[in-house]
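User: tokens in, sequence out, please.
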């Protein structure tokens, strides 16, 4: 029987056999699986796919010499055969797990292995109760995730294993992060979700396709995964799969040693963990603190697991190890410092060394435990140490592979007996496992360097040439650059790219570059790594790789692309000036290598010059494009013209600036569906600058849907920003706030600092200011100043000026608002010109805004928008003598009616007109205008404006209550409001979930919470509300 046949037979037996002992069933047969569960019929049907995923995953091609062989699955990490029976290591008594009750299977003399089903935990009552509460909430459909953090041996795994033992009514899914699999795309996700493959038919077809490829169950595609952020596309598909499984019974996901997860799995699982609100799903993640990679979990609940108290530590020591001499017991307790694993391991060291003084020194418990394990390994025969080293070097613990490699080094399976007898290693579920990750570290790091290199070399030698692990073992065995190894690693990175594993892709390209000899290939591979890192949202890594590229190559084409990456990272971090400089550098590189390609960075440079208000820099970029005579030079020139014309520059008229911007909009709109989501965001911004709010609203909303469908998460913050701005203009403040909050959450998740600042500056803070909310404005301003760099172009002070204006502090308001218009880039705040002019009039200083009003008037006339003309007419009334003001206010009111859809600005015009009518003793007309204005202000929650309208009403002799239309939107949370809007538009829960990155069940949860608040009971009634 050949190796492939033996492995298939072994896989079949593995998948159909339950473990004989251990705290929990293996992942492919979840605890409490019912006989009629479709999962139980999967093994025979999936065997061919499992075999494909087990073997090397390449883009396309047939097995050598076999034309009828199936195409292989893409690189997604170790195959299901290697992972199907993986059980997490159990930290024995680590939470203070006690002995098994009489009559239950126990762990015998096992000092480092897991305890037994039903065993108690010492000193963890509070933590156990907290986990029980999580499971109870999941049973009720209120899912959540919890991160358990603590040092090695402190009891994290035992704590979550104990929780799993109480989850008899749950489907229990498990995966364990493994250091050696850190560079294999979606290895952890595959281990966790493969048992749910039978539920793929219950999720939307496109989600099933994404997951089939990610889990290695479908052949490799003919082309790479579509561009987009895999956290969102794969994450939403995985969330759908968990939701489908949870429809039958709750699901418990246990992710052990999450710090060793491959970055793609980690990103997807963190995405899921934040979106379990309405799912009957609980997720428990364990993370080691110290001596492990950092694993930040922003937005998730955490449970720090500290040492056992003295009483629990003493009880554990007594119950598990019996009586120790009093002095020895004291030394063990002091040295262990409450660490359960140390309490079990140190007594042996005490017996041999009496725990010398250095055991109680400054070294960490982890270091001490590694020494204990290292000493135990050091006392084993050399052939046993060889086998342990091989198992540690390839932690997939492929039995056939390890034994083949051992034979080349003069060892065999029987040589493992001493380590097995000492509970250092076991054979479970058809694979070798260490009793604890620290044993693996001790076995590997304790070996001399030459032995470690030899182990990796031999493992690579016995692997089949196309095994996806082989390049990594070759790399680990190398001591210097090697083009063959670099090429093999590059092929692995290409496979990761095929299935969309961007996190692993950049890491593998970087490693390939490290093994590349000096020359152009090193720069090229570093460039691929930098581009993949940026696409994966790892800005700091992309920036670091950019630095390596500039020091590694003089190839101008490579430097141009690398500089584009760096410019994008700088822009994300709100370093606008730095980003401009880098785009200009990229243009210089392209000028030397590929002149026609220089148009893109020059165009982006002008866009950034706009944001800083540095018109000279915009002109430099435009002139550069014109010198090159490239096809896109007119675009660059038009944007430079718009930059100057719309930002109060004397060099270009406002009319010319508006005309240039219209040309750019028409060009981009003319490309139709070919325009990317990122460019649509730019078009929406331009349309807003021209006052065409309806067009901007349509462009942004359409682009948001496109970005969500294609996974273009990087474009979403800017698109949501434009969407929120248009809602603000339209007087739908609750919607604007909901979009801005969504934008901030998303920008934080993908690392776009600039989005979090602008959402606060141009949406949340102005709304709070117009409502007169001092505390909210102060809080937002403080946050913006903390996040934004000192030279930011974002107008943080504008909201504080609006607050002053709303509260009647007109002098202070004028100073703050004029500071914004006198600085760079005033076009960004052109919507606040009417507030500034009115503040100047009320402060008795209209001369200060003469030039500003003239600029605004030219802009309004050039754009031709009715709404803008209405605002100009209102300002003319404010600046005119009182006897002439009424005609301007009445004209403004007529134009507002024609424009429609701007309730706040219409109400302000009605307020001014009502005040003038009262002064003109046209009281009846005044009351009508003032009541209309007061009702709008009250509905929006604009308290200062409501009070001003009521004051005028009282002066007109009307002291009656103002009946505002019910603010239905104000009754909902931001998330509920977004869901209700989409439901009212006819979208299903599934479609809503895809739009908002929620599961269908979570979308339904928010919808049905909103129904009683709105007084409706169905979608039909909801649509009639006209929200």
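Assistant: Sequence out:
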């Amino acid at each position: 029987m050949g190796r492939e046949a033996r492995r298939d037979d072994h896989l079949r037996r593995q998948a159909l056999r339950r473990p004989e002992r251990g705290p929990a069933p293996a992942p492919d047969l979840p605890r409490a699986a019912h006989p009629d569960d479709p999962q139980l019929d999967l093994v025979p049907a999936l065997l061919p796919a499992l075999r494909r995923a087990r073997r090397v995953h390449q883009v396309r091609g047939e097995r050598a010499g076999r034309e009828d062989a199936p195409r292989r699955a893409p690189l997604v990490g170790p195959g299901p055969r290697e992972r199907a029976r993986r059980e997490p290591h159990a930290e024995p008594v680590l939470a203070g797990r006690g002995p098994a009750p009489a009559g239950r299977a126990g762990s015998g003399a096992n000092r480092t292995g897991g305890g037994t089903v039903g065993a108690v935990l010492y000193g963890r009552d509070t933590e156990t109760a907290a986990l029980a509460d999580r499971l109870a909430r999941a049973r009720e459909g209120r899912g959540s995730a919890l991160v358990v953090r603590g040092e090695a041996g402190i009891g994290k795994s035992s704590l979550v294993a104990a929780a799993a033992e109480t989850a008899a009514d749950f489907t229990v899914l498990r995966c364990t992060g493994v250091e050696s699999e850190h560079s294999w795309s979606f290895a952890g996700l595959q281990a966790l979700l493969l048992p749910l493959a039978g539920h793929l038919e219950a999720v939307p077809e496109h989600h099933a396709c994404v997951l089939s490829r990610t889990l290695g169950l479908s052949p490799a595609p003919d082309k790479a995964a579509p561009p987009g952020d895999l956290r969102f596309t794969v994450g939403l598909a995985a969330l759908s799969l968990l939701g489908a499984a949870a429809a039958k019974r709750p699901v418990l996901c246990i992710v052990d040693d999450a710090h060793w997860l491959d970055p793609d799995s980690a990103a997807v699982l963190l995405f899921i963990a934040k979106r379990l609100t309405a799912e009957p799903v609980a997720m428990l993640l364990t993370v080691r603190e110290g001596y492990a990679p950092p694993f930040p979990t922003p937005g998730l609940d955490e449970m720090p697991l500290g040492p056992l108290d003295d009483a629990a530590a003493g009880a554990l020591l007594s119950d598990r190890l019996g009586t120790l001499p009093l002095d020895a017991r004291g030394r063990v307790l002091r040295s262990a410092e409450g660490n359960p694993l140390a309490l079990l391991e140190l007594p042996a060291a005490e017996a041999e060394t009496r725990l010398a003084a250095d055991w109680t020194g400054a070294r960490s418990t982890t270091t001490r435990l590694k020494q204990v394990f290292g000493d135990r390994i050091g006392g084993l025969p050399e052939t046993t140490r060889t086998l342990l080293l091989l198992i540690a070097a390839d932690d997939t613990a492929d039995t056939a592979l390890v034994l083949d490699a051992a034979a080349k080094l003069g060892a065999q399976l029987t040589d493992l007996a001493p380590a097995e007898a000492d509970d250092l290693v076991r054979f479970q579920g058809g694979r070798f496992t260490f009793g604890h990750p620290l044993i693996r570290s001790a076995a590997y790091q304790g070996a001399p360097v030459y032995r470690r290199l030899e182990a990796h070399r031999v493992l690579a030698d016995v692997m089949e040439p196309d095994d996806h692990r082989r390049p990594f073992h070759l790399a680990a065995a190398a001591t210097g650059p090697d083009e063959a190894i670099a090429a093999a690693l590059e092929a692995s990175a290409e496979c990761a790219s095929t299935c969309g594993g961007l996190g692993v892709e950049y890491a593998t390209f970087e490693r390939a570059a490290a093994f590349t000899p000096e020359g152009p290939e090193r720069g090229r591979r570093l460039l691929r790594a930098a581009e993949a890192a940026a696409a994966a949202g790892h800005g700091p890594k992309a920036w670091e790789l950019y630095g390596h590229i500039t020091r590694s190559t003089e190839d101008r084409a490579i430097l141009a692309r690398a500089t584009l990456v760096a410019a994008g990272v700088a822009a994300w971090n709100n370093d606008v000036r730095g980003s401009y400089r880098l785009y200009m550098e990229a243009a210089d590189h392209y000028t030397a290598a590929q002149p026609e390609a220089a148009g893109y960075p020059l165009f982006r440079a002008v866009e950034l010059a706009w944001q800083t208000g540095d018109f000279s820099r915009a002109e430099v970029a435009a002139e550069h494009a014109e010198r090159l005579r490239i096809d896109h030079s007119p675009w660059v020139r038009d944007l430079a013209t718009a930059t100057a014309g719309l930002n109060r520059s004397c060099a270009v008229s406002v009319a010319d600036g508006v005309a240039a911007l219209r040309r750019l909009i028409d060009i981009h709109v003319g490309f139709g569906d070919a325009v990317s989501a990122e460019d649509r965001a730019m078009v929406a911004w331009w349309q807003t600058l021209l006052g065409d709010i309806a067009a901007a609203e349509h462009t942004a909303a359409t682009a948001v849907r496109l970005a969500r469908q294609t996974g273009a998460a990087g474009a979403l913050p800017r698109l949501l920003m434009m969407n929120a701005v248009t809602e603000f203009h339209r007087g739908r403040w609750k919607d604007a706030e909901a979009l801005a909050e969504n934008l901030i959450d998303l920008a934080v998740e993908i690392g776009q600092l600039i989005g979090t600042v602008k959402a606060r500056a141009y949406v949340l803070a102005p709304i709070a200011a117009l409502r007169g909310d001092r505390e909210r404005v102060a809080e937002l301003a403080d946050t913006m100043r903390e996040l934004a760099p000192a030279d930011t172009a974002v107008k943080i002070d504008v909201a504080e000026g609006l607050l002053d204006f709303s509260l009647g502090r007109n002098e202070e308001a004028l100073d703050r608002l004029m500071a914004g218009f006198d600085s760079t880039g005033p076009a960004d705040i052109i919507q606040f010109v009417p507030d500034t002019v009115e503040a100047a009039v009320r402060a008795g200083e209209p001369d200060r805004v003469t030039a500003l009003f003239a600029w605004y008037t030219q802009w309004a006339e050039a754009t031709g928008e009715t709404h803008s003309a209405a605002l100009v007419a209102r300002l003319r009334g404010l600046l005119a003598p009182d006897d002439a003001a009424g005609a301007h206010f009445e004209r403004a009111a007529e134009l507002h009616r024609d424009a429609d859809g701007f309730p706040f600005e219409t109400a302000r015009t009605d307020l001014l007109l009502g005040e003038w009518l009262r002064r003109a003793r046209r009281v009846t007309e005044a009351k009508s205008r003032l009541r209309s204005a007061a009702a709008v202000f009250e509905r929006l929650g604009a308290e200062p404006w409501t009070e001003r309208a009521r004051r005028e009403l009282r002066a007109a002799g009307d002291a009656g209550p103002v009946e505002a239309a019910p603010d239905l939107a104000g009754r909902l949370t931001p998330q509920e409001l977004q869901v209700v809007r989409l439901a009212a538009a006819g979208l299903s829960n599934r479609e809503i979930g895809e739009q908002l990155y929620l599961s269908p069940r979570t979308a339904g949860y928010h919808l049905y919470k909103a129904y009683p608040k709105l007084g409706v009971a169905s979608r039909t009634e909801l649509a009639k509300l006209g929200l």
